[in-house]
C-alpha cells in the first residue's frame, strides 16, 4: 500500500541495506530509508 494511502494508525515501512542502493522505485511505498548496513 502506498504510504500516502495509509492512515496514521498503520505501522511505518522502513527499508535498509541493499534496498537503499536503488530506492527510487520503492519511494512511494516506504516511509523511511536507512542508508548503510545495520551491523
UniProtKB/TrEMBL annotation:
Residues 2-39 form the Radical SAM domain. Pfam families: Radical_SAM_N2. This is Radical SAM domain-containing protein. The lineage of its organism: unclassified sequences, metagenomes, ecological metagenomes.
